[in-house]
What does this fold into?
Amino acid sequence: MQDNELLNIPSSIPRRSILKSIVGIAATGALRSPLKGEPLLKAKTQPASELANSIGEISRAPSGLAAYELCEFKIPLQPEGLEKLNPYRATEMALDAEITLPSGKKMRVPGFFTQDYVVRDSRGIPTKGTKGWRVRFSGREAGAYKGKVELRVKGKLVASRELPPFTLAESHNHGMIRISRSSPRYLEFDDGAGYFPIGQDVSWTTDVTATEPGVTISAPMLPWDKAFLRWFGRMGENGANWARVFTKPNFYMESGEPWAWELENAARLDKVLELARQNGIHICLCFNAERSDEGTCYKGSMDLMRNSNTAWGRLLSSQELGFEQFFTNALCQEMYRDKIRYVVGRWGYSSNIFSWELWNERETISSQEGVGQWFRDMTTYLRSVDPWNHLIKSSAHKPWSPEYWGKDNGDLNDVHPYFGWSGEEGPKNLGAFIPEFASGVYATGRPFLVGEAGIARAVSTRYGSGSELADKDVACFHLHEVLWGGLFSGAVGTGMLWYWDEHTDLHDAYFRFRAIANFVADIKFNHESFTRGETVAVSTDELRILELTGKQTHLIWLRHRDLSWYGLAVEKKVLQPVGPSSLTLTGLEPGSYRVEYWSPEEGKLLRSEELAAKGTVLEISLPEIHSELALKVRPLSHRVA
It folds into this structure.
């Protein structure tokens, strides 16, 4: 729903004429010379002195809140002199709160303009009389807070008012997610508790996917609210704690006029973020996914930004520009910064935000002119306006993308290995392929995610179409390989499956999350400083070995050499058990060790035993292995909290 009422735009005005209306675009001439910095909006405002009392009485925060819980303030503004300003454009008007923590530290939080909605039959019904400014805040300290709200018009401070004081109690919430201070390849919360992401992409809903040309979907057709309720509920029940969500298309705010966000779509994301909180899911929120799609499997479905009926398309076409100029155009840069500011102001309070992600697979953008500098600039701006300092994740599908990796591009890197898109031979065994594919980013020493992985359904290979091959894997063993392959690649979490609806949900494979969640439950990744190991040898060549070596713990994944999703689902291989063999683990401290034997498939501890190292070597007698076995090896002196 467009906010035309606020902006005084009659519905009868043609869309292209709106660019010359009171929305904020003064004249076509101004649009055609954006690099001169000429502002779009020419609305007249009262002198600053006459706006000094424009902030009305601010609502109080609810009593009984604890640290990291949402404190929302309604900020009424007296409309006289402000009604023709665009609330989504910071150069016209910007509202911020400066909040003083009990320790005396200050946080500056962007305000945002919104309207309340009630969801009925998966549609948002606007609530009358709720349109206005809000400030959302969550504090990390227990104690008394105070603050003030400031209103700026055209960059000048015109009004200020004290926030009603409030108090936050101690909280059981672990806080925001950070790079671990002691093990920087891994993650932890503000309070030092470890966080190991387990999950999948749930980027959009099945009913949207079905609208793509030529696509047939066998998964249940669910609208956005019922879909996320189902997915997050099943994921949370089975130990998953991470999901990646695209704002496009279910929560896309830029589908109308420039600087006029779709508030109903924003309200949808409010609901989804609350569902995430209820189910213990932390969301990687991806802002954009546009790419070069001509002639590809997506058939333009990722092309929302370039479409002429979106805010970006209209802003560019009004300047007689195309998508190729998006990253270098001053007005597009300004509007994107305002989008970032809105996103942070509306959702930055939440400790269920895992990270921000500016763009999915940035190297697939058709025109790379100015892209690198744009990402560096927007990353810098995002850090400057986010007082909670959420992680920022970059995204690339290539195995080696050094130009995209580094602190100027975010805190976390990302790789996307697929059968089909990343090759046809190696990915037939995703469990072995994913660590190999991630070797380049692992070598940088920076934390990274396997943020997407799976079987590319839309790709044709010499073995058949990806969809036909994937549909044969009704047990979703490739999900199992993605999860465990991510763990043993040295990533901050599991690998994250793409095709959540047509695989995980359709085949009810949520139990795959529970299996690996059980295995890692007592591992303190943020203290172990795990690295890929080469200290294990086995007495047979019938087993594949993957290993992580930590300060206290050794993790070992032993797999039948013929075990793979392709072998099981497509070739229908019957694995012959690998007879009893021996394993040698070197580089240990002398002493006694506890060895745990786990079933990766079931996530169950099979048995444990105590063994003594002979000098720096531990010899382990392996049982007969039908498919795979996982080991945890720890000193007896190691205590698991």
Summary: The chain has a mean pLDDT of 88.
